[in-house]
Write a structure and sequence with these properties.
Helix content of chain A: 10-25%
Strand content of chain B: 15-25%
Largest sheet of chain B: 9 strands, mixed
Largest interface: A-B, 35 and 32 residues
CATH class of the largest domain in chain B: Alpha Beta
CATH class of chain A: Mainly Beta
Strand order of the largest sheet of chain B: 3-2-4-7-1-8-11-10-9
Number of strands of chain A: 8
Order of helices and strands of chain B: EHEHEHEHHHHEEEHEHEHHHHEE
Number of strands of chain B: 11
Shape of chain A: globular
Distance between the termini of chain A: 42 Å
CATH topology of chain A: OB fold (Dihydrolipoamide Acetyltransferase, E2P)
Number of helices of chain B: 13
Number of domains of chain A: 1
Strand order of the largest sheet of chain A: 6-5-4-7-8
Structural class of chain B: alpha/beta
Strand content of chain A: 35-45%
CATH architecture of chain A: Beta Barrel
Oligomer: heterodimer
Shape of chain B: globular
CATH topology of the largest domain in chain B: Peroxisomal Thiolase, Chain A, domain 1
Structural class of chain A: mainly beta
Number of helices of chain A: 2
CATH architecture of the largest domain in chain B: 3-Layer(aba) Sandwich
Distance between the termini of chain B: 16 Å
Helix content of chain B: 25-40%
Largest sheet of chain A: 5 strands, antiparallel
């Protein structure tokens, strides 16, 4: 097995399931989507089969604008997984989309002076063949 | 039911590296010592409940432990709530004793992540591993960054919490880490997940603890002279994971604390000593705010300037806490609270009449609060 194949194998790719498959497929196609309850209009991520507010199993997929705000972020100086060892220090952030749903992500671009509440915009990047929603300061 | 149920005995193992010891073996040692401390026989115990080992959750753990202890308790089993489970189990047993569902209860916890597997503390969160979102410290770091940016909380204010815990742990002959630090040394401690440094993070420890509960009346009839009354308890569940929590700087420790204070008929100004779950320094700061010791957002200033040290206004984690005594998730905070209320602690707070103990789990997902009174 070659080194590059090993590293590719090591990438902790998202586990796709019947509930989340449409989410990852949409990213693959260049769109970030979230779920909205057809019954009570509550919006959320990550994908679920039932609305956590009204409990009904009737979510619809909607496309996010890609605009959001930085809720918080951290910088890893320790790799808990070998795939990320070469990347430290690296950031992980929580972003709230304009549609009020939140997700875990990485910040890319000009990340030297970050502040909570700052505007960020979606950048879909491919890693080991998987399309990931990342964000850059807007 | 304020004061109707007491902690009549406490036991704990050594902390640190205990190679070759199973969690069952550690639990039995802690229970044996707690029974000896209460001066009662095993046969009197009719409830045995346990928080399952964090690093190796197994099916029917409570029954495996009961079998190994040769017991057929009326109430038995394991309760998973992460680090909040120990105090929750104590409160469930207090209610069970009050309602005559059982008479004498053992509550215990053991784990061996130091010499066994620490995978539970380093694993990925949900399906976000692709972003490098791994490990427990990062979740707390996310809360800390938000608190710092929103309220101006500083690293030095978090450092003051570590300095207090390490000072108290250094004085504790049973502590795993007996090395005090200065604020300067804290500042030089390496980042783990920024804004948290190594010295913001708790230890990883093998060890166990256990407590014996019974009614105050029973303790009196048995002539137990160091029984510590349970004045109040409460729980609160934040539930939402860090990324989904609407406000990263508030938790349902507000609910668990308010419930416990209401039951005890006390408020923060009545508390003489605090044993606050310090898996990370930020946890202490946010819990003290949630309990009302400091206004929301002002915990940093409250924790600074030595207020939490043994000679300060609110002595914290007087045996060293998770940062210095043992990283075990929480029951050792209860046993230290009991020693303070008996007047037998290593660093005894003079005239301490009340002690608050906090347990919490996940990334502040679960909360349980206990208020103890002076031994009778």
């Amino acid at each position: 097995m070659s080194g590059s194949a090993l590293q590719h194998d090591d990438f902790p790719a998202p586990q796709r399931s019947a509930v989340s498959d449409a989410y990852w497929q949409a990213l693959h196609d260049g769109r970030l989507v979230y779920q909205r309850c057809r019954s009570c209009s509550n919006a959320w991520l990550p994908p679920r089969s039932e609305c956590p507010r009204c409990l009904l199993p009737d979510p619809a997929w909607q496309e996010a604008s890609g605009n959001g705000r930085l809720v918080s972020w951290v910088v890893y100086h320790h790799a808990y997984h070998p795939y990320f060892a070469a990347r430290i220090p690296y950031n992980v952030a929580v972003v709230e989309l304009a549609e009020r749903t939140r997700l875990v992500t990485n910040l890319v671009g000009a990340t030297r002076s970050l502040a909570i509440g700052m505007a960020v915009a979606l950048v879909i990047e491919r890693e080991a063949g998987v399309a990931l929603p990342r964000f850059a300061p807007a | 039911m304020r004061g109707n149920v007491v902690i009549a005995g406490i036991g704990q193992t050594a902390f640190g590296k205990l190679p070759g010891r199973s969690t069952i073996s550690l639990n039995i040692e802690a229970c044996r010592k707690a029974l000896a401390d209460a001066r009662i026989e095993k046969d009197m115990v009719d409830a045995l409940v346990v928080k399952p080992p964090t690093s190796d959750p197994v099916f029917m753990y409570g029954q495996t432990l009961a079998e190994a202890m040769g017991m057929q308790p009326r109430i038995g089993g394991a309760w998973d709530q992460g680090g909040a489970a120990n105090i929750s189990l104590i409160s469930f047993m207090a209610m069970a004793i009050e309602h005559r569902q059982c008479e004498v209860a053992l509550v215990c916890y053991a784990d061996n992540p130091r010499t066994g597997s620490r995978h539970a503390y380093e694993k990925a969160w949900g399906s976000d591993a692709a972003f490098g979102w791994f490990g427990v410290p990062a979740g707390y770091a996310m809360l800390a960054r938000r608190h710092m940016d929103e309220f101006g909380t500083t690293g030095d204010e978090l450092g003051a919490i570590a300095v207090a815990a390490r000072r108290h742990g250094a004085a504790n002959p049973s502590a795993q880490l007996r090395k005090p630090i200065t604020l300067e040394q804290y500042r030089d401690s390496p980042w783990v997940v920024e804004p948290l440094r190594r010295d913001d993070c708790c230890l990883v420890s093998d060890g166990a603890a256990a407590v014996v509960l019974m009614s105050a009346e029973r303790a009196r009839s048995l002539g137990i002279d160091h029984a510590v009354p349970i004045l109040g308890f409460g729980q609160g569940q934040s539930s939402w994971d860090v990324a989904q929590r609407a406000d990263l700087t508030r938790t349902c420790a507000e609910v668990s604390g308010a419930t416990a204070f209401a039951m005890a008929g006390l408020s923060p100004r009545d508390i003489d000593v605090a044993q606050i779950y310090d898996c990370f320094t930020i946890t202490v700061l946010m819990t003290l705010e949630a309990y009302g010791f400091a206004p929301h957002g002002r915990g940093g200033a409250f924790c600074a300037a030595g207020r939490l040290e043994i000679d300060g206004e609110l002595p914290l984690n007087t045996a060293g806490g998770l940062l210095s005594e043992s990283g075990m998730p929480g029951l050792q905070l209860v046993t230290e609270g009991v020693r303070q209320m008996r007047g037998s602690a290593n660093l005894q707070v003079r005239n301490a009449r009340t002690c608050i103990v906090s347990n919490q789990g996940g990334i502040m997902h679960t909360h349980s609060t206990l208020i103890l009174g002076q031994a009778q």
